C-alpha cells in the first residue's frame, strides 16, 4: 500500500477518534509511546490518555490542512507531519497546530492501519489567527 | 549527554549554518536523507542541497521558539520538532514554520553533534502573522 495513503488514512482515523471518542485513543499507544504536549512529556498509554482526557475542553473539531509522510528508520516506521487547526467550541477561535506522529510498523499478519501503534505526538498550539 | 541538550545544540548549529553558509548544510545529509518541502520530496545530499540553494532568498534569519525532542526507534535516533519564524529580509514579514529533524545516531568514536547526519526535514511555511 502507498505509504502516503496509509499516513492519510491513519491521520483521518486518529483525528476522527479524537473528535468523537477521545478515550478510545488509548488503544493506539504502547508502553514506549511518548506524547510531548507544550513541552511536557507523557509516556505510556495510561499517562497519555490521562493527559488527553484532562484537556480543558469536552468537544473539539480538527481541520487537517497538510499531511506529509516519510519513511523513518530501518524498521519500516513512518514519520507523519500534520498541520491544521482545532476549534474547541462554536464560539472559539480556531487554534493552529502542528503535530508529528511516528507510528510503528504493522505487526505481522495484521492490517497496516489498525496496528499503527507506538504513536509519538508533539503538539504545538500556535496563536489564534 | 542529555538528549534535549544534544537536540538544542544540533538545532542551533543547523539554523546558524542555514543563515550564514547555506551550502555547508550538504554535509549533514546522507543518501537516505529526505527533505519534504511544501509537499515536494527531495532525496540525498545533492537533491536536498539543490533545493535549499534554490530558495528565492539570499539572506535569512531564523528565530527558534520551541525545540522538542523524543527518542526515535530502537537504533538510538532522535525526533526533534522545531517551531519558529524565518525573516528573509529587513522589509519582509516573518513567516512561521514548523520543522521536524530526524538525526541519525552518532557513529562510533565520533562526537554526537558533528555526526548527526541523516537529517530528515519537513518544512511547512505558515501564513505571515
Automatic annotation (TrEMBL), chains A, B:
InterPro entries: NTF2, NTF2-like_dom_sf, NTF2_dom, Nuclear_transport_factor_2_euk
BP GO annotations: mRNA transport; protein import into nucleus
Tree of life domain: Eukaryota
Record's GO cellular component terms: cytoplasm; nuclear envelope
Pfam families linked to this entry: NTF2 (PF02136)
Gene3D superfamilies, A to Z: 3.10.450.50
Record's subcellular location: Cytoplasm; Nucleus
SUPFAM superfamilies, per the entry: NTF2-like
Keywords linked to the UniProt accession: Cytoplasm, Nucleus, Protein transport, Transport
Limits of the NTF2 domain: 6-100
Chief site of localization: cytoplasm
Classification via PANTHER family: NUCLEAR TRANSPORT FACTOR 2
Chain's role: Has a role in nuclear-cytoplasmic transport of proteins and mRNAs.
Protein name: Nuclear transport factor 2
Species: Dichanthelium oligosanthes
